[in-house]
């Protein structure tokens, strides 16, 4: 019996497919771990942002009762300075289209 070259070629192809499969599996596991880590970071940032929004809203409500905190809020950019430049608004009566 002669050794068929077809069997050798098929064995090489099987070995290449197995190595490729291992590489793809390793890449999938690595990216899945990275995704989980990034998702936890995003959740942390969203929680901190929500906390800061609640804190800013509470401070703005407090400033309505106690205006002594207004200079701090104006310096930090949370509350606009009085007499500052107001954004330009378009009045509906001045539009040129009819």
Order of helices and strands: HH
Number of strands: 0
Beginning-to-end CA distance, first to last residue: 95 Å
Structural class: mainly alpha
Explain this structure to me?
The protein has 98 residues and is mainly α. It has one domain. The protein is built from 2 helices and no strands. The chain has helices at residues 5-65, 70-76. The model has no long low-confidence stretch (mean pLDDT 87).
Itemize the secondary structure elements and their pairings.
Elements: H1 5-65, H2 70-76
Q: What's this, in brief?
A:
69% of the residues lie in helices and 0% in strands. The chain contains two helices and no strands.
Please describe the structure with a list of short key phrases separated by commas or semicolons.
single chain; 98 residues; mainly alpha; 2 helices; 69% helix
